[in-house]
Amino acid sequence: MIKLFRNTRKNLLAEGKTTKYLKYAIGEIILVVIGILIALSINNWNQNRKEAIEEKAILKTLLQNLNAAKKQSEALISEEETLKISLIRLLGIDANPSKKNDTIIPDSIFKTTVWDLQSDQPTFNAYNNLKNTNKLSLIKSKKINEKFTDLEFYLNRLNDVLEDRLSVHQIRVDNILENDINFIPLVKSSVPTINIEYEPQNNYNQLLKVKRIRNLLGMKLDFTQDAIDHRINLDKEIKDLITLIELELNKK
């Protein structure tokens, strides 16, 4: 094709047909430009198609991760709620308190209520990996990108609350188990083979009348409610993101 164009130009010049040569040359340039534009258009179309395929794969990966995170989130909220109920009952401040103030409190119940603390968070490995590799830029939806920003905000807020609670717990609440009771009977629930027959038994009802101890457990209850509230906020962001991604995938 190039050889044909070259021969045609030579013939026109040889015949002295300058005007026709110029018109032909301009026409040739236009054809070349059109060819380049078509090639660029095809290249862009292929690039957009590849990016669309990759974006869909990314959204599917994120959706899978978010569904797993949702299950983790719901389980963690349930554990926090269980701890909250245990603290309320141990302090005897539930809405319908028992009239019996001398109800025996088992060692295992006292141990789990005072000792246990949930510091885990839902994991977002797929999102973090994509963020580190700059792949999130392939997601075209502005709403989805904004929602992930919101997710990070609520995740950081939850992390702050959990760290504050853990710090207070380690410094103050664990002190109860170290200094105010005989801890050996509490070990029986996790090491059932030990003999605690001659160990001094704890009077938890009497212990729970001490102002300092009630206040420390009250602080743990307050922190736990705060953690529940922040976990619920994060859980809502996770579910909103799942809905947005599902809608986006249905469009593709």
TrEMBL record:
The keyword Membrane applies. It comes from the Bacteria. It holds the Pfam family DUF6090. InterPro entries: DUF6090. Keywords: Coiled coil, Membrane, Transmembrane, Transmembrane helix. Residues 42-83 form a coiled coil. The chain crosses the membrane at residues 21-42. This is Uncharacterized protein. It comes from Aequorivita lipolytica.
